[in-house]
């Protein structure tokens, strides 16, 4: 599904992270992959938030995609289209409260984060600075 839309990209790994971000990620999350996380981000089924990168150094580009891989109705949403970034960000899950779905956290470690939450019938983005 994503290979057609992002043919030159790959899922972010710890090796894609900037210098000390690799150690910070490992200390906080161990061997977990910084490029994908599962959760119930949209009511109804389980989805996967996946961040993809392509290029390197001053030509690094990154995207954030949400995939619902239900066999009956596979869907994807581009939360952030492929764009130039200074360094790779990671993706995490913020558990929902009560009957609310989980949220996607897209974070540039020690720099700031975007939070994507399902509100009504679409994803809304909030910016948080560190």
List the helices and strands and how they pair.
Blueprint: H1 2-5, E1 10-11, H2 19-29, E2 36-39, E3 47-54, E4 61-68, E5 75-84, E6 90-94, E7 103-108, E8 112-119, E9 122-129
Antiparallel strand pairs: 1-3, 2-3, 3-4, 4-5, 6-7, 7-8, 8-9
Key traits:
single chain, 130 residues, 4-stranded antiparallel sheet, 2 helices, globular
Task: Describe it.
The chain is mainly beta. It is about 10% helix and about 45% strand. It has two helices and nine strands, in the order αβαββββββββ. The strands form two sheets. Strands 1, 2, 3, 4 and 5 form a five-stranded antiparallel sheet that branches. A hairpin with a 7-residue loop joins β2 and β3. The longest helix has 11 residues, at about 20-30. The radius of gyration is 14 Å and the shape is globular. The termini are far apart. The mean pLDDT is about 90.
Residue share in helix = 10-25%
* Number of helical stretches of at least 4 residues: 2
Order of helices and strands: HEHEEEEEEEE
Radius of gyration based on Cα positions: 14 Å
Structural class: mainly beta
Shape: globular
What's the gist of this structure?
The chain has 130 residues and is mainly β. The chain has helices at 2-5, 19-29; strands at 10-11, 36-39, 47-54, 61-68, 75-84, 90-94, 103-108, 112-119, 122-129.
């Amino acid at each position: 599904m994503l290979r057609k839309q992002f043919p030159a990209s790959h899922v972010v790994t710890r090796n894609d992270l900037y210098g000390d971000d690799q150690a910070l990620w490992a200390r906080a999350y161990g061997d977990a992959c910084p490029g994908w996380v599962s959760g119930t981000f949209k009511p109804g089924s389980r989805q996967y938030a996946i961040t993809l990168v392509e290029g390197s150094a001053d030509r690094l580009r990154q995207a954030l995609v949400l995939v619902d891989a239900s066999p009956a109705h596979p869907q994807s949403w581009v939360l952030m289209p492929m764009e130039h970034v200074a360094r790779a960000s990671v993706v995490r899950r913020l558990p929902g409260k009560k009957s609310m779905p989980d949220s996607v956290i897209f974070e540039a470690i020690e720099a700031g984060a975007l939070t994507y939450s399902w509100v009504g019938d679409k994803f809304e983005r909030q910016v948080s600075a560190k």
